[in-house]
Amino acid sequence: MIDVRRLRYFVAVAEEQHFSRAAERLGISQPPLSEHIHALERELGVPLFQRTTRSVSLTEDGLNLLPHARRILRDIDRCGEVIRDARWQKMSTLRIGILHAHAYTFLPRLLAAWAKQRPDVRLSLLEHATQDQTTVLSTGDADLAFVREPVHEAGLTVTRLFSEPYWIAVPESWHTGRKDRISVTELQGWRMIGFPSHHASGSTRTLFRDFLIKHKVKTADFLQVRTMHAALALVAGEQGFTPVPRSQRRLMLHGVRYLPLAETPPQLSVGIACRSQSDSALAQSFIDFSVAHFQQPDW
Fold it and tell me: Which residues form a coiled coil (predicted)?
């Protein structure tokens, strides 16, 4: 019986037409690869490759074997896929809408904790912009969605998970009065970069307008982009500053520094929303788990 591993080695060499590249692709050294190919040739009783000091090419027998070897390997790989697919089909699936920033702030720890408790549940994540955070629920594309509050939309129920203060992301080259925090007065004359929300009341500009007026600070102008990624890229490029939620500081980017405000800053509230008519016990279980998770001091 032909060793399946040797068939994989044969296909790799045939496709790479080079023993060293094939060995690198397979994650083994070249000598054992050459030995396995020689063993396969001895087993079949024919040479499969023509070898020179500079090239490797298939013999006629090698050309005849290649399509059959590929088909055999595909069928073997498919056996594993069939088993995995059957396991997945037996699992419940929870579709969750997330904002882009959630993926690198609070979400990884939450999902890791959930997976330990409910390994029987398959999670599907749907990324969306803040402007679309409620649409994924109303269209039925998601069972739950993490949202920025406030949310005023009929047919949705929102459970608040946590509130956190805004920090300020500034260029690393920007010198501030203190290294551990920044005063709102130091934002005078700088461009503010922000992003919209699903509702005008939740946009960065709206949240910070009254705060800046209260402290008699006037920014140079305001630049709005669609996502926090774009805002932070502009900050790194020394185009201005952008307010970010405190959990954002976990994402370290070249050219960007995160500082808390010396004054009491605006707050960002994050909730989890579902359709009001939903009777999914699994969705409610995830909501309850999330509420408990964010009650821990070190979430």
Answer: none
